[in-house]
Amino acid sequence: YRHGEASEVVVNTPDGPVTFGEHHPLVVVAGPCSVENEEMIVETARRVKAAGARFLRGGAYKPRTSPYAFQGHGESALELLAAAREASGLGIITEVMDAADLDKIVEIADVVQVGARNMQNFSLLKKVGAQPKPVLLKRGMSATIEEWLMAAEYILAAGNQNVILCERGIRTFDRQYTRNALDISAIPVLRNLTHLPIMIDPSHGTGWAAYVPSMAMASIAAGCDSLMIEVHPNPKKALSDGPQSLTPEAFDQLMQELAVIGKAV
Ligand code: PEP
Ligand code: MN
């Protein structure tokens, strides 16, 4: 079991510092799966900010199952994220897949995301641990809690103490109705085992926009510190993860409901 106090991860955003942690208001991260073009990323940033999000998420480098699926716009998408940061004041969270891209990502991102598929890419973990920006470590799709905490330990051991853990659903036997099984029990379990802040991603956790609000509520009830929600201005046209993306209107509605039930947003 954990010894000592919950740790805080303070992230500097254009709008000022935002703190992730047990004793702080819920931090909501929102945005599209992929950065598609300037108009959509800037529009999404403005809309999620107006609804109360503190961070914009969006992939420039995408870990797609098929090599023929959209892979992300890469470096040019990083520039679009920088523009959205400027336009909105939101902090930026984006994924690093390859250590070769890390320096470029660190220049524009306020938090560097390591995705589920790279949770045990130990050389990447060592490298994100040796750079100065906070790291969001997603749970591997079949990772045990122990494996996940050990992956976090790689980052901490390399010198970076600013690690946020993100549960995004695990692979079980039923993929017919949900993409993954969101492990809500990870919240109290992690609270017992680690001092690190806990984020929940009900978008990848369920795979369906219709299920996102109830799982977001459940996650708050179970005590999470932060939520990551995929939002797209036109989910039907999204280049990735459209079925699980909320419209800006649905996101706004969710934020109003969240404000009522728990930790102030
Ligand atoms: C994502 O955040 O868009 C993503 C690819 O998530 P995960 O690594 O959890 O699948
Ligand atoms: Mn996605």
Structure write-up:
The chain has 265 residues and is of the alpha/beta class. It is built from nine helices and ten strands. Helix 1 packs parallel to helix 2 (75-88), helix 1 (38-51) packs parallel to helix 9 and helix 4 packs across helix 5 (145-157). The model has no long low-confidence stretch (mean pLDDT 96). The structure holds phosphoenolpyruvate (PEP) and manganese (II) ion. Manganese (II) ion binds next to loops.
**Overall morphology:** globular
Number of contiguous helices: 9
Rg from C-alpha positions?
17 Å
Unreliable stretches, pLDDT < 50, 5 or more residues?
Answer: none
Describe the strand arrangement of the main beta sheet, using strand numbers: 3-4-5-6-7-8-9-10
From the N-terminal CA to the C-terminal CA, the straight-line distance is 29 Å
Number of strand elements: 10
Mind sketching the topology for me?
Layout: E1 9-13, E2 16-20, E3 27-31, H1 38-51, E4 55-57, H2 75-88, E5 91-95, H3 102-108, E6 111-114, H4 122-129, E7 135-138, H5 145-157, E8 163-167, H6 186-193, E9 198-200, H7 202-206, H8 212-221, E10 226-230, H9 248-261
Parallel strand pairs: 3-4, 3-10, 4-5, 5-6, 6-7, 7-8, 8-9, 9-10
Antiparallel strand pairs: 1-2
Helix pairs in contact: 1-2, 1-9, 4-5, 8-9
Bound molecules: phosphoenolpyruvate (PEP) and manganese (II) ion.
What is the compact description of this entry?
Keywords: Transferase. This protein has helices spanning 38-51, 75-88, 102-108, 122-129, 145-157, 186-193, 202-206, 212-221, 248-261; strands spanning 9-13, 16-20, 27-31, 55-57, 91-95, 111-114, 135-138, 163-167, 198-200, 226-230.
